[in-house]
Structures are given as structure tokens and as C-alpha cells.
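Hi R.,

Here are the chain sequences for the assembly we discussed:
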Amino acid sequence: MLVCIVILVSWTEPDSLSDNVPRRPYVAIVSTWLLGALHNVFSACVMIGHFLCSRPRVPTLWHLRTFWPCRFGVPVAQRFNGDARRPSASKLQASIFNFNTFYYIGFFLLSVLGSAFYGYFFAVHLLDIARHNQILSRVIRAVTKNGPSLICVLIYSIAFFYIYALLCFAFYRDTFIPSAGNFCDTMYQCTVTVIRRGLIGGIYSYLVVPEGRSFQYHATKTIFDVSFFIIISTIGLNIIFGIIVDTFSELRDAKWQADQDMRSSCFICSKGSHDFARCKGGFEKHVKSEHNLWSYLFYILYLEEKSRNEFTTIERYVWKLYQKKRTDYFPLYTSLTIKQEDEDAQMSAIVTCVSYLVGKRKELDIARQRELEQLRQRQWEARYAQSRRSRAARMHIQTVRAKQLASDVDD
Ligand SMILES: [Zn+2]
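And here is the predicted structure of the full complex:
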């Protein structure tokens, strides 16, 4: 971008129209060279980094045999009579014939060409911004995702242009003025002119009807112009714009849905974010540390790279399920955090119940002690009353005996 800014502020018109070498001050030339050299080095580093990280491999015979069947959706096993044995290859390796490999090679070559040709080719590198910006990536994907549909519509529209070019060549060749850039001496020239003028502003704006033509000529020319306006300018272009806008809306809705899913539920266990509201750290901690989806991906890549003979029991179990494209090893609708919280809650409930029972037991013991004490009190009072009555009776008997003895002595 710095190179482009230097070019933007320093380049002036060349000495002649046929000359493409711009006039630049000396500072701009040195700056372009220095920044260009830096750009070359960084581009080379990016390309080498891609080759080191992705390790692009040359496709094997198996890949070449299965390339087109896979593209057309034919199951490999069916195509090769059940012989779908895939040569073992790491998932970390990329094919040498993939987009990224050509992209980074082209990136470096254009950087070298930019240094060699005054900086012209550095303009292409500005487009790399789209690869690092999600919004721009979505805009580009809106065009590329439905690329086949757009290409079909464009090819179909070329058929319409060809028909109009034939009509122009047959009936309206005299309305094309070569001095204004409208050529129609051959069918090829007529087609190119109709496509060029038809897409930019409508061909009816550029064709000049010679003087002295009859009303019949103007009437047929009106039908020609109006049909071109309706079919090409209105319907055709709006179909293309509609496809692009619809794709962009789909991508935006899909992105919104994906963001909503990521915010509202865990990708691994499918539990809702509200389930983790009472847990420490909440939903964010759960998806970042407990059920981090990248950890699961790294685990699968780790199994891919590990020798099958060195698998542990768990690794063998996960690997077998992964080979069958099953996700039973995912902790669906369960999590250690929630389980721990549930266990803590259960333990707390048990402690509360036990405390209640102990308290109740103590109250019962105190009540029983009180009753026993009261019973003992009543028994003591009964014994005391009994002894008093006995003592009174004995004293009465003694008194009677004493009186009887005294009367006997008097006699
Ligand atoms: Zn989870």
C-alpha cells in the first residue's frame, strides 16, 4: 500500500503518449525501489511460509483417478467397484494444485514484476486486503459462490447480444458510425460493438439514424430499441444483480445464524448458554476452556498424525468413531461444570436435610428428657406422700398405745 501511495503522489505524465515510463522525482524512484525490495522479501517469506506450513504435495495416482468422479458427486467406492482405499495422507498436507499455492506463487511473481516494471504490478496486491477482512470476503463470496449461475446467465445473455448483432448487421448497419467507435463492417465487429454499447448505457443511445428514413423504418427501430431496453438493460442486468444480492443476503443470514448459534449454544455439547448462568465463569469460560472446539479439532489432527500402533484405548475408540463419521465421543448435553454444579447442589441439599434431621432429633431428645424428668418428679412426689402418710399412721398408733398404757397405769 505504501508503494501505491508513493506512486499516487509522485507519478506524472510521460514524455510521449506511446511511452509508459512515468516521470518521477529521484526520491520517488529510490522509495519505490526500497519499498519494492521489502515487498519482494515479505512476499517470498509469505510464499515460503505457506509451503512450510501446508506442505503441498504432488497428487498421487489415486487422487488423479478420483478427481473428476468426486467433482461430479459419484461415490468413489461405486466408481471403482468398491476399491476406495485411500492412500494414507496427513490432513495437514495440502495439494500442490490448490488455490492457495497458486495464489502465493502469483503473489510473489507479481511482486517481482512490480519491482521490475516501475511499480505497475503492485496495484494487484491491494486486492489482498479482501483476504484479511471478513466483510470484503463475504462481498467477494457473494459473486463467486454462485459463479456457475452467473456464468450461465452471461453465456445466455451473449446469445441475445448475438441475435441483436445479427439484426443490426442485417437492417441497421448504416446507423453505426465508425468515427464514434461504433464498427459494424463485419459480423464480429458488429457483435463486439453491440456487447460494448449494449452493456454501457444501451445500444439505442449510440446508434444514429440517418436522415430521410421513412416512418416504417423508425417504427421497426423503435421496436428494436424498446425490446433491447426491456430484455437486456432491464431484465438481463437485474437478473445478474438479483443473483448477487440474493447470495449476499444468504451469506449475511448464514453468518448471523452462525454467530447466534455460537453465542446461544455450545458447539460441542449443544447446551444453551443459559444453562451455564449459575456456573462460575459462565458460558464464555465453558466454550473457551472446557469445550473449546479447536481443542477437539487439534485432537483429531493429533490422531491423524499419530501412529495407529501407539493409540491408547480411548484414542482407538475415538479414532474408530471418527472413521465412521460418528460423533458419539462428543459429550452431548452434558458437561463437567454442570455435573459438578449438580453434585454440589445435591450435596448441599443432603447437608440441609441432615441438619434438619439432627435438629429434629435433638428436639425430640430434649422433649423425652423433659418427660422423663417430669415422670421422675411425679414418682418422687408419690413416694414422699406415701411416706408422710405412713409416718402419720405410725405416730397415731403410738399415740393411741401411749394413751392406752396411761389409762392402764391409772387403773
Ligand atoms: Zn459444551
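The CA atoms of residues 351 and 357 lie 10 Å apart. The two ends are 156 Å apart (CA to CA).

Let me know if anything looks off.

Best,
T.
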